[in-house]
Structure formats: C-alpha cells, structure tokens
User: Fold this.
Amino acid sequence: SNKFCKRSDVHGRETRQHQSLHIPLYRTAAGQRTFTYRAVNLWNCLDIKIKTTESLNSFKTNFRNHLLLNF
Assistant:
C-alpha cells in the first residue's frame, strides 16, 4: 500500500477527483505496463459501490461482475 497515494496527498486542491489514487507519470509504454500504473487506473475506474463494500467476498463478487460487464 506504500506504492499508492491519494491525489489529495500530492496537492492541496479540493477537486472532484481528490479521493482517487494518484496516477504515476510514465512517458513510455513500458512504464505504463507496470503493476502500479495499471492497478491505479483500474481502481480509479471502479464504481464507488464496489470500492466501499464491507466484506472481501462481496468485493470479489462485485468486482468480477464489473469486469465481465465492462471489459
């Protein structure tokens, strides 16, 4: 979890996306294939309902359904 930080930790502005994770800047395609870059993009694309689930099992179920419907 130390690889991920919120956008509000990077700058002090209160934007609509301040609770999203900060996307690391990679200028090359190889950098954009890293785990950190892809995980942050995937997490930021999730619905708030999925992000705020209470249990791990319900998160897995909701996440799997989201992937099947959208990707």
User: Anything to note?
Assistant: The chain has four helices and no strands. The mean pLDDT is 83. The longest helix spans residues 56-70.
